[in-house]
Each structure stands twice: as C-alpha cells, then as structure tokens.
Amino acid sequence: MDIAQEGERDHVQDHDHVIVVAGDQGEGEGEETTMDGSVDWNGSPCLRAKSGGWPAGLLILLNQALATMAVNGVSINLVTFMRVVMQLDNANAAKHVSNWSGTTYVFSIVGAIIADSYWGRYKSCIIFQLIFLAGLVELAISSYFFLHNFSCESESGDTKTCRTPTAAEIAIFYVAIYKIALGNGAYQPTNTTFGADQFDEEHTKEKRSKTAFYGYFFVANNLGSLVAVTFLTYIEDQGRWAAAFVISAAAALLGLLLFAAGTKRFRHFMPCGNPAATVGNVLVAATKKRHLTVPTQVEKLYEVDGTHSVNGGKKIAHTPGYRFLDKAAVIEDPSILLPGEQPASRPRRLYTVTQVEQVKCILRLIPIWLCSIIYSTTYSQMSSVFIEQAQAMDNTINKFTIPAAGIGIFEIIGVTSFVFIYTFCIAKPLSKRSKEPTELQRMGIGLVISTAAMIAAALVERQRLKHADRYRLSVLWQIPQYLLIGASEVFMYVTMTEFFNDQLPDGMRSLGSAMSGASMSAGSYANSLIVSLVMAGSRSGGQAGWIPQNLNQGHVDRFFFLIAALNAADLVLFVLLAKRYKAVAKPAAAVAIGSIR
Hints:
This protein is mainly α.
C-alpha cells in the first residue's frame, strides 16, 4: 500500500503547500485538500469532498456495531459458559472472565503501538479483524463438535449432566477466545482513532463532527451490544452455543466487508515512529545528561525548522513542567549543531522539544489514567458478579424467561439515552452560557454515578437475601444499577477516550484510545484480584465466603459496598489530581471541544 511507504513522509509534511483556498478558511469554502496532513490510498493529499467525512465515518460506525455484536455474543455470557460448560464455580468463573477481559484490553496497547508505529491504522484494522474473525470461527466449530453437551441447562445451573471437557478441548477453547481477545482488543482503539481521522480537526465544521463521532461511536457500540444481549444471549441460554457463535462470526465478517468497502474513501496518516521507543530514549537521554543546565531561553533547546517534527507529526510548543526531561533537548556542543538545524546524522542523546513534550503528555495523563482503574472494576461487574446475581433471582415475566445476561440491555439503554440527554439537554444549553463542564469535570461526574450504581447493587442484594428463604426477588430489581452504570459510561469512558485523544500528539492518538481500553484491562485484573482477596478473607472460620457457589449463603452485598467505597476514595483522589492537571494548549485555529454534538 502506497501510504505505508516512508518515502511519502516528506510529501505529507509539506501538505500546507498544496492547499487551495478560495474563501473562508475556517469554513473550508473552495478548499480542495484537507489541512491536517491526511493522505488518500495513493499517498496524495486528500480532496475534502471525495474523502473521509460522514460517508467514511458511517461505514466505521456500522463496522463497530457489528464487531461489538460479535464480541459481546461471546463475552456477555462467557461467565455462564465457564460455569456450565467448563464447569467452574462462581468465583473462578468470574476470575477467568475478568482475566480474559483484562487480556483483551492489554492487546489494545499492542494494537495501538503497532498501528501508530509500523502498519498504520488502516492495515492494522484489517489484519486484527481477520484474527478476530478466525477466533470466532474456531470457537463456533469447536463448540459444535465437542465443547457443548446439549443436555446441559444453563438457566437451572445444573452441571451434573454435563460431560467434563478434556484437556485438548479446554486448550482449543482458550486458544479460540484469546484469538478473539487479540483480534478485537488490538483492533478497537485503532478503529476509534481511524474513525476520528476521517474528520479534519483544522476545519471548523469537521472539528465539530469529529467530537460528535466519539459519542456516536459509543452509541454504535451499544446498539451492537443491544442485539447481543436481547438475541444472542437468548439463544445461548437455550443451550445453542454453537448457533450463537456462528451468528457472531457472520456479524464480524459483514463488518469486515463494510470496512473494506470504504478503502478508497478513507483518509490516512503516516506512522510516526514507536511512541514507546520515544519515551524510553528521552528518559535515557535526560538521565545521561542530568549534569547539564537547562537554558532559560526555550529557543536554545533543539528543535527542527518547519511545522513538523522529525517523526512527521506536528510540532508541540514547550511547556514548563517536568523540566528534567528538557535536558534531552539541550545541545551539548553548539559547534556541531545549532537550534533549528537538522543534519543528516543527529548527535546521539539529542531529541527535539516536540519529542520531549510527547513524553510529558504521557506522564501528565498517567495519574488521571490510574484513577480510572477503580471505575473499571465497577464496569467489570456487569460481565461477572451482576450475572451471577441475576441467576439467583426470578427471571420470568408472564412465562417469558429473561436470560441472566439479558438484563444488561438496560445498561445499553442508559448509555444511549444519556448520550442524547447530555448532548441536547445539558451540553447544548450550557454551551450557550459558556458553562459547559470540562472533560475532567465530566469524568468526575462519572465516578459519582458509578459509586451510586454499586450502592444500588448492594441494596438490591440485601433485599434479595432478605427474602431468599421465601421467594426469589425479580431480576427487574437490577435495572437501576445497570442504568446508572450506563449513565456513568457516558461521563467516564466516552469523555476519557475524547480526552486522551485530545491530549496526545498526532502520532500517539491510537495510544490515547488504547489507554481507555487499558483502564478496562487493569480494572478487570483489579476486580479479579479483589475477588480473590475477598474470598480468601471471607472464608476464614469455615465460612462460605462473600461470593460462594450458592449466593444465598454469601454476602455479595458486602462485596458491592466494598467496590462503592473504593470508588468514593478514588473520586477524592481524582478531584485532587484533576485540579493540578495542566491541559495541552490548543492551537489558535482549533475549535474548543468538551461536548458531544
């Protein structure tokens, strides 16, 4: 593919020279090419009218909805599959699912680095979708032939009639689901960023569309989840696992074909080098040059001429924080290199101001990212303990059986509803008064709502235990906790993806999307650790523990209260860190963002 060739990079860096303007540049009247440096399939500057925009964005949104449907056809009921087919107890099933979910999001970091550094986002999306599809096909085939005994009833929880899987069958199962984890995990952050790439952030109208795209991307996620929760989980709860997995594979294939259909329409950006290598090199250089004094005049630090840095991305202005890192840009021997010069062979241990600022951007985001981990433990309950709680409740309404995972539809309703509620009932009125909440304020609101969600879940569990000896509480009691988590996602995950992408430079934006996924990963692992510690501590003295096989003998309510307390403590820490955070300065021509429009 032409856009992946390094020889085109210099051509991309000079894109400002091929822009033709015949009117108001802010509105793009008369412009023939985009202003953000994007290129088409052939490596030429993109013509605005014939590339990107909503035609390309819509294909990516459809692709995302189908991919989400496919992966949720596996993930939403995976804890049930682990318990019924793989014959694990409740605590171990929850831990295995948390570990699988965590690994999925770890792969998001891998995918982001590969996309930004080597393959480019388009090629990465194609290859990882193929791996994802291969895993789904393998899971469907293995389930049909030897993983599932059709006499096993998932809803009853009876595993006595289930044949124990052999070691070979278990191995095939785990290979399949971890292929799915690799393919979907590595593809997701790249797809988010690639979709945002279809909108020129240097253009006023497209800048607004780019902000809106993040909100609609999460709506597409939830529409795909809606089909999985209402349709695929029903099939799976009938014991027809293979059929559900075949449908998931078909959805992934259709999504891949739709993505491929937009190939000639998509806008592309050149890979800008390995961000991990940049971070490591700058840290090493600053450490080795620790004896040097940073000049008070920024102009004396090393930077190349022009609008782009050495890695092809836009230059970043110097900021006063983390001054120790500035040593990496200090010129040791002025006779060899003067500021602004770019020789054929750059001296070792010398990096540009832009490269140093890239590292600073990441370091500033790490504390905010760490605070999102506890929130992600709340999110991970929906694929583990919430489902086990639902299985201990009455899931019939007028002889209609609701799948244990089916109540998760209200999380989808919560997300979808609050995207539009925030957009039209909160953001739009407040923006007219210039009082719209900042991204960090919205994330704080998300933490408050998630704490309320876990308190609601704990109160429902207490009510369920109170009446467990007489009757089973209706599963509809779970609706508030799902709605609240859905609302919190709008303020937390939607905003966090937008925030990280906004605060990182051009060549690291897939990493920004991946950081949101990495938060989910760390939250899943943290949840697995918390479950292990809780079970180890609560089983002392011969007790059944908080999350036993029979939840009526446990105290899941205490577990939920514990997560709520951790969320509350995390909120306090987040507020302190958010007040100290210094945002990256926006270019003068950029449109301020902070809402979903």
